[in-house]
Amino acid sequence: MTEQLSEKEKAARRRADGKARVKRLQEEAKAKRRAEKERKRNSTDPKDMGRLKQIREVYRLTKEHDPNLPWLLLVAFLVPIVVLVTIGFLVGRPIMVGLLGLPVGLLLTTIVLTRRAKKATFLRYQGQAGSAEVALNMLPKGWTSTPALTFNKHKDMVHRAVGRSGVVLIGEGDSNRVRAMLNSEQRKHEKFTDAPVTTIIMGERKNEVPLGQLTSHIQKMPKVLQKYELTEVISRLRAIDATRPRMPMPKGPMPSMKGSRREMRGR
């Protein structure tokens, strides 16, 4: 009888230990969720933000460079509503037609905010070393970009974008120094790939492409590669990049481009 009770006590103790272990694991999981929630609440990374917080952050950053933004958004929202309500009165259905102005106003407001945010993003990074990365991050799906492919101590650098238009090398910095860097990179790329290699100097001078126009300039280039050819080009370039010596980053502040595309789009 004593042995039987002893076994029952052991079983009860094991059950109690199991319950305590489960409770401890649950408390640890809750603590981790609370810590992660707190981290996201204080994070400035757009990936950690909800949709509304992203929109508020985009609005805040854009307004810093665009004081007229609130009025522009208000006009964009109200004009479709006023127009459709007026049409509604003319056709005898002001409420039904006027309600259509709400989604139209929201859509127009979103378009205005996106365009103004894009312009503000360029203004925020204008003149900073590495600012071309902002424009490259805004290239649509199908483009692969490599920022700061090569650079020197003066913070002149060459970026690369690869898409169906071929290989695009973008020079940033002093035009004379950058031209030499572009020519060198162009020879290397033409040696290892049959894709067309185009060079661009980003800047405000004649024959240079401003930061704010760089994305659209690249997108307008004619498509000369098929998708299977693009895949082969990217594979070759990765093999070439793997053999490049690791170069130390130039000293001095560099802009953080992380999340700039998401901030601009508000998502």
What do you see in this structure?
Helices cover 62% and strands 10% of the residues. It is α+β, with helices and mostly antiparallel strands and 267 residues long. The chain folds into 2 domains: 75 residues, no CATH class; 112 residues, no CATH class. It has a 4-stranded mixed β-sheet with strand order 1-2-3-4, with helices on both faces. A hairpin with a 2-residue loop joins β2 and β3. It is flat, with a radius of gyration of 28 Å. The C terminus is likely disordered.
Q: What key attributes describe this structure?
A:
alpha+beta, single chain, four-stranded mixed β-sheet, 2 domains, about 270 residues, 10 helices
The fraction of residues in strands falls at 5-15%
> What's the total number of strands?
4
Distance separating the two termini: 69 Å
Radius of gyration, in angstroms, nearest whole number: 28 Å
- Total domain modules: 2
Sheet having the most strands? 4 strands, mixed
What integer is the average pLDDT? 81
Q: Choose one word for the global shape.
A: flat
Helix content: 55-70%
**What structural class results from the helix and strand content?**
alpha+beta
Strand order of the largest sheet: 1-2-3-4
Low-pLDDT stretches are: 250-267
- Our count of helices gives 10
Order of helices and strands: HHHHHHEEEHEHHH
InterPro entries: DUF4191
Pfam families: DUF4191
Keywords: Membrane, Transmembrane, Transmembrane helix
Transmembrane segments: 69-89, 95-114
